[in-house]
Design goal:
This protein has about 750 residues and is mainly alpha-helical. Helix content is about 60%, strand content about 5%.
């Protein structure tokens, strides 16, 4: 045992792979956020037994806090900037128009502006404020209003008119003095919805801060100020010259001439509102252990989900780093055990994946990314963990096999459930959906296969999801009436279709990354119009015919042992493409009666040419972008076998020439390999040798064909050519019988028809 451990520690390749796995496991633990407990509730979940608080906790009462903030917002005064510059010219303007009235002895001699400003026209005032002021005149006709106004301005003596006007203007200037402080609001701003009891903050236009005078709407609206209860309306008596007879006319004039001095400061008001809302302390809602959070037989809606999330956050805040590290360690051990089970299967059944560092990194990284993305999208509102899980499982099934895909699905479904909801029913849904997709995925002959598989998985998702809910609630009606749950189940089923389309669209990328080839690509390569096959039939027709025959025989043989018949058929089409670079050096392309070109070469040179067709074929395959599995078949279909004819010829020459005995070393006459690594490569080796040998038989009787095939297979066995592939002795026996039957069918004897007598001429 100690010796084995010592060998492990000194095996650099094994250390590298173990290090990669350990690093990927650490990444997986981080991707699962294993230091946090899973939050097991989702929107639309049915709660048959209710949920109680596990710990005492506090949460922000959003509704009460929002009401408090609304009240604070209502108490914020609307900010208006006051610019009374336009009021300063009012006394001078009034003086000018009163002078016009004093000098005019009739209404027709007044200017149009004065007529309009004092309402001395026949036009009915259109605004409410003008109507109200006009009614105060007490006279219906313009002439009556003019006479009444002129009498108040001129008085009994025309010579005293100017002094009366000066006195009236001076008192008028004092009368409107309060407007400079309070300002006048624009009626458009009043229509914003300002109520009479809404506080208004009047700030000077040039004041940098928001310090000013509080006011209400009646204090800044002109018509309210001119009312008897208003600031201006109460002050008429302080000014003797502004007699009662002239007050309606001056009120009307003010309505016509005064422009609003208050400008609504929207930015300042919003800032004050925001500050007031921020200053409101949050209102807390307190729960003690055992308080009912969700009653039995209720469905989790958005409000209830928020409540559960608040409890979860409170519980997480109480966990210390010691407990979190302990949890991380436990999760790591669980993942390590799971990785050990997966690794045991991979080492025994997928040696290529276990030995190839690149493939191992790709596989492990795919698992980590799936776990990370799956957990990330598992929460509301996406609930899409099935998409990355099913996508990767289908990709593994296409790239490797159903068994590895099933094991991967089990592992990923387990870790995702463990890190998300932790519920058994969710694990069953994920695993059943993946299994339903894997079972019919034995061969991907077309993209429609993946779409059909996704439909099957979608149906399985919906059925298992609903079935688990029925088992949990023990009531079909409750599940049927839960619309939100049915919608979420249907959404999950539709996401399965998304995964199928993702895989179908990414197959070329998958083939490149995993080094695999799908049946769709193989079917495309089997088209005789492929440039390489066209060149082969043109340059080396004998080799092309040989390749077609080998393809048919090998496909039949490999399918009988459970191999990929389509792969070996396409591989057989291309396995000898290297011969078309020197076609005349290969016997099947030499025309009858022609002299072989090898007659002028020594055996060693002939061997180099014969062996070279393997490397030439691999180079051509890479140049034309053939998949790696096809290139592998080209390189492995001769393994490390011996070029027997030229080796015997070299041996004969060496025996006759003592100085050249070293020219017949067996290693120089062997193909460079590698030996067959797969069932398909082993079958292709056998069929290629047997079909070529059968062409040399003068009378290919069944007995001779059987003896020939048996001898060739035995020589390959004794030469250890099948040591590196997974062919069993029983498989070799099946292959041998299939090849014999196929060759007998090809070279069976035919009836010799008598020659037709020449027709006699008359």
């Amino acid at each position: 045992m100690w010796t084995r451990l010592s060998n492990v520690f000194h095996n650099r390749s094994l250390q590298l792979r173990l290090g990669i796995i350990f690093f990927e496991l650490l990444l997986l633990v981080l991707a699962l956020q294993s230091w946090r407990a899973p939050f097991g509730f989702r929107l639309g979940d049915y709660v048959p037994h209710g949920i109680s608080a596990k710990i005492p906790f506090e949460r922000i009462d959003q509704e009460e806090t929002e009401r408090a903030r609304d009240r604070a917002e209502e108490g914020v005064a609307l900010i208006f900037r006051n610019n009374p510059t336009s009021l300063q010219s009012l006394p001078a303007e009034l003086r000018a128009e009163l002078g016009d009235i004093a000098q005019a002895d009739s209404l027709t001699k007044l200017g149009s502006e004065t007529l309009e400003d004092f309402g001395l026209t026949n036009t009915v005032p259109q605004t409410e404020k003008a109507k109200e002021a006009a009614e105060r005149y007490g006279a219906k006709s313009p002439e009556d209003r003019f006479e009444k106004l002129r009498a108040a301005v001129v008085g009994p003596d025309q010579s005293m008119a100017q002094s009366r006007i000066d006195e009236m203007v001076e008192e008028f200037a004092q009368f409107i003095g309060p407007l400079f402080d309070t300002g006048i609001i624009d009626p458009k701003d009043v229509r914003r919805g300002i109520t009479p009891d809404k506080r208004i903050l009047v700030v000077d236009e040039n004041q940098p801060d928001h310090t000013g005078r509080d006011a209400l709407l009646p204090q800044v609206r002109l018509q309210d100020q001119l009312n008897e209860a208003g600031n201006l309306g109460r002050s008429w008596g302080k000014y003797p010259s502004l007699k009662k007879d002239i007050q309606p006319a001056l009120s009307y004039w003010l309505f016509k001439r005064v422009q609003p001095t208050l400008r609504y400061d929207q930015a300042g008001t919003k800032s004050a509102i925001a500050k007031a809302r921020e200053n409101v302390e949050v209102r807390l809602e307190r729960f003690i252990e055992g308080d009912s959070l969700i009653r039995p037989k209720e469905t989790i809606d958005a409000e209830r989900l928020t409540l559960l999330q608040d409890e979860y956050a409170a519980a997480e805040n109480e966990i210390g780093w010691g407990a979190r590290l302990t949890r991380v360690g436990i999760v790591f051990i669980m993942v390590l055990v799971l990785a050990g089970l997966n690794g045991f299967y991979i080492v025994l059944n997928e040696p290529k994946l276990a030995r190839d560092v690149g493939r191992l990194i790709t596989y492990c990284t795919a698992l980590v990314i799936t776990a990370f993305v799956g957990r990330l999208v598992s929460f509301d509102p996406l609930r899409a963990e099935i998409v990355p899980l099913l996508t990767v499982v289908l990709l593994i099934g296409v790239a490797y096999n159903q068994f590895l895909a099933t094991l991967t699905a089990f592992s990923l479904a387990l870790v995702l459930t463990m890190s998300t909801t932790g519920r058994l029913e969710d694990f069953l849904v994920l695993l059943s959906t993946c299994a339903a997709a894997i079972i019919p995925l034995r061969r991907v002959s077309s993209r429609a296969t993946l779409i059909k598989v996704s439909f099957i998985s979608a149906l399985t998702y919906f059925v298992i999801s609903c079935g688990s809910a029925v088992v949990e609630t023990q009531s079909l009606s409750e599940v049927y009436n839960n619309t939100q749950f049915l919608v979420m189940s249907a959404k999950g089923a539709s996401l399965c279709l998304v995964a199928g389309y993702l895989v179908a669209g990414s197959l070329p990328f998958v083939e490149k990354v995993f080094g695999v080839v799908t049946d769709m690509t193989l079917l495309e390569l089997s088209d005789p119009s492929h440039p390489l096959l066209q060149d082969l039939v043109r340059l080396a027709p004998g080799t092309y015919n040989h390749s077609i025959a080998v393809a048919s025989i090998a496909e039949t043989a490999v399918e009988k042992i459970g191999g990929n018949g389509l792969l070996v058929r396409v591989g057989a089409y291309f396995h000898d493409i290297g011969k078309m670079l020197k076609p005349q050096y290969f016997i099947e392309n030499v025309q009858e009666g022609s002299v072989s070109r090898h007659a002028q070469l020594n055996p060693a040179m002939s061997t180099l040419i014969i062996i070279g067709h393997v490397k030439d074929g691999a180079d051509l395959a890479e140049q034309y972008g053939l998949p790696q599995p096809i290139i592998d078949l080209i390189e492995q279909h001769h393994g490390t076998t011996l070029v027997e004819y030229f080796f015997r010829e070299a041996t004969r020459i060496a025996e006759c020439t003592p100085d050249h005995r070293n020219d017949a070393e067996e290693s120089s006459f062997r193909y460079p390999g590698p030996k067959p690594q797969t069932k398909e490569a082993g079958v292709l080796m056998i069929v290629d040798a047997c079909e070529s040998a059968c062409r040399t038989l003068t009378e290919p009787t069944p007995k001779r064909i059987e003896s020939l095939v048996s001898n060739i297979v035995m020589r390959r066995l004794l030469d250890d050519q099948f040591d590196e592939c997974d062919l069993k002795m029983s498989d070799i026996r099946v292959i041998q019988d299939s090849v014999i039957k196929s060759l007998i069918a090809v070279y069976h004897g035919r009836i010799k028809y008598p020659e037709l007598q020449e027709a006699r001429t008359a």
